[in-house]
Please model this.
Amino acid sequence: MTERSVVTDNKQAHIKEKVISGLLSLSALISVVTTVGIIILLLSESVSFFKEVSIIKFLFGTRWEPLLEPKSFGVLPLLSGTMLIVVGSAIIAIPMGLLTAIYLSQYASDRVRTFLKPILEILAGIPTIVYGYFALTFISPILKQVFPSTHIFNALSASIVVGIMILPMVASLCDDAIRAVPNTLKQGGYALGATPFEVITQVIIPGAFSGIMASFILAVSRAFGETMAVTLAAGATPNLTVNPLESIQTMTAYIVQVSLGDTPAGGIEYQTIFAVGALLFFVTLTMNVIANRVMHHFREVYE
Model:
């Protein structure tokens, strides 16, 4: 190979690296611009809304009826409905997902693992609207037999299907985090006389805690933003309650209701979707910031 060909190859490699670097930078820029655009849109419309509605009444009001007379803009019923779904689904998905991940990574044989993994992926691939109809036609009738006071549309049914939806995410990410823990840590625990249960609870889970926390946060964020399954299963009644057997409405379900086209654009009713969206964005962002601080703290301890 001549010196000229070597120089040509180096130039081509340098150009390829420049192109790849430019594409990666463009992708990052698009993500930033998109996020900034969403924030600007939410804030601009929300400011117009809060010029007519007190932010105190919006955040602490207990009656949400922006489409009926007399109008009321207290968002607490939507916030409580959203939290019912999030907490209920987390109670189902987080323990089951973590236990599934522990089984797959520590106890399951390769044959069992290759059988269970695709089943989890199938659960993750089912459309959310199918989960909604499953909750409405299968889970709700069962709940009605167990608890006769259960409404046809109820928060418990929606929580169960959302928990099933986010379970594969928790299990898969926890499994990856647990398998990333060095095997030497586990063997060291056994060498010190620890039982398998002690190794899992005192060595493996602490060692993978940041990854496990990340899976929890992603799953809860998914539950916060779930729309179709919750809309079908939980109903559209902005009800300030902690009873999971009653019909409720979440923030995302309300946004869908108003976005169907029956509400004229530009009015105060239309602007409520941006105010609710901004609140949802703020709650999710706050939760992620807190979770990142927790993960950073434990990453410093165990790395």
